Amino acid sequence: MTVVGFHASHEQISPQRLLHDVQRAEEVGFQAAMCSDHLAPWGVRQGESGHAWTWLGAALQATRLPFGVVTAPGQRYHPAVIAQAIATLESMFPGRFWAALGSGEAMNEHVTGDPWPPKEERDARLLEVVDVTRRLLRGEEVSHDGRIRLDRARVWSLPEVPPPLVAAAVGEETAREAAGWADGLITVDQDRAALRRVFDAYREAGGRGPLAVQVHLSWAPTREEALAIAHDQWRNGLVQPPESWDLAFPEEFDAKTADASPEDLTRAVQISADPAEHLGKLLELVEAGADRIFLHHVGTDQAAYLDVFGERVLPELTGAAR
To answer: From which residue to which does the signal peptide run (predicted)?
Structure first.
């Protein structure tokens, strides 16, 4: 059966409110959760960016949900530090945590002052990160001198079983390359034919584990309100990879989308006032092969959305057979 999760957007909501929101999400029927891991928001209007790893410990304790995070060790984070964080969370909450590893975005990584590598270099660095992280989670002492460097690193507090390391991928090529190391795949909602190609590329290359999709959506009592929410909070979605990977500041995303109209946001966000219309589009993801669907309502006020989706969307979506 399809697992439906709540996406906790640190870029938009304060950590305290977001903790309340994820508790409410569990109450209304969400079966899982995931969160972003940003140093900066996508746009100045969003105005938040809590520390994901600190928050995750509280969220796992405050709920019974399984949780994941999309993160990018290698520049802002040293992989030994992230391996330690992964091991600690999984040790405290066995079987409830996963981490999706990606190549990162300049907006979060430029703060180190190191040059922002081209995508090919970032992908090569990610493979080194995956290798040393898995070795550290097995309890090995790891030294490595390559695109990342470790000197006799060891994680001492280990879980009985290392948690899944999932690949974060947007396109077919990245999905295909990740199949060799990942325990699953998470991607973003996109044209259904393109989504199937991403899934197929991963599976045909031998990829194992669940296939997950993150969906940006906007619901409100009227379509005009839903459009306004998306226009205010998620114009950054109109900036697509690879450009979105290389912009360094929220102000740059704001400038790139300053002339966008509310209707333009329908290209980046699933927008409707009708829960049945949302449900229909989400069921298409199940038909495309998604095992897990993580819903991100792009508004800063989650309360009404959670109540409506808990009553009118989740029961049918969670019951949809793959």
So the answer is: none
| CA separation for the pair 122, 72 (Å, rounded) | 10
Q: Is the peptide bond before 250 cis (omega within 30 degrees of 0)?
A: no
The span from the CA of 78 to the CA of 161, in Å, is 22
pLDDT value for 1: 84
Examine the pLDDT at 320 and tell me if it is beyond 90. no
What residue has token string 């199940």? 286
Q: How many angstroms separate the CA atoms of 85 and 54, rounded?
A: 10
Query: Residue 55 in contact with residue 18, Cβ under 8 Å?
Result: yes
Average pLDDT over residues 11-35: 98
Find tokens 């190549």 and name the residue.
103
Amino acid identity at 236: N
* Active site members: 38, 105
What is the DSSP secondary-structure string of 113-176? -S----HHHHHHHHHHHHHHHHHHHTT--EEEESSSEEEEE---S--SSPPPEEEE-SSHHHHH
194 pLDDT band, cuts 50/70/90, is very high
Mean pLDDT of the chain, nearest integer: 97
Asked if the peptide bond before residue 15 counts as cis, ω within 30 degrees of 0, the response is no
d(CA 319, CA 7) in angstroms, rounded, equals 19
Q: How many other CB atoms sit within 10 Å of the CB of residue 71?
A: 24
What pLDDT was estimated at residue 322? 60
Query: Is 185 strand, coil or helix?
Result: strand
The amino acid at residue 297 is H
Strand 165-168 versus strand 211-218 pairing type: unpaired
